[in-house]
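Moderator note: this is an archived Q&A kept for reference. The question asked for a predicted structure of one protein chain; the sequence and the answer are reproduced below.
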Amino acid sequence: MSVLPELDAHVPIPGPVLLLGAPGVGKGTQAQILMDAWGIPQVSTGDIVRENIRLRTAPGLEFQDLVARGVLVPDDLVNGMVADRTARADCARGFILDGYPRTLGQAEWWDGFLADWGALKDGAVQLPLIAVSIEVRYSELLRRITGRRTGSVSKRIYNVYTNPPVSPGVCDVDGEPLVQRPDDTEEVFAERMRAFDELTAPVIEHYRGLGRFEVVDGEQSVEAVTANLVAALRRLRHGVL
């Protein structure tokens, strides 16, 4: 089932979209579908920071220095880099935010930035950010993450619970051993979830309070999640135009 015509017909100008979701919910897959359908970029704070460091911009060098010294990176520094990235031509119709806003302070700054967009762009209108969280039960996420195995040579991905190899512990393609990533253990996953919940909860409540937030069940097929995600984004976008 394709949702591309539905996307084009009902959400011609996406504007800023924030996809939220814990590790393993399939956020990356859904973001790619929306990017391909709408022809808009994914704006990732990780990519932005790496680009600034590579180009040796002032913000990039400052970020690198703070991290090297173990100093907390201030929101203002990240806000500025994201603002610069979203001012590029490929973001004119909209973009999908990845990893930002991560804190309540960033979310509040971002809303103010979009509200001032008209003054910055000679009266141009910038649509407000809308946010959807893809949610999956903790037990299911744990299976998805801790069950993941990768072919040591082929790099083919398996899951011992949902997509196991024919012979336990070895790749179907070349018979080489399967490996588990160090961060795919239950202990690491629990810590990542704790950090995610701590950072994301205030952001969710911020956009929920503004009427710009919905939840989508991530324990469905990829196509069903996409359809429900598009429907949620359509409701939100039409509600805040």
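Archived answer notes: The mean pLDDT is 88.
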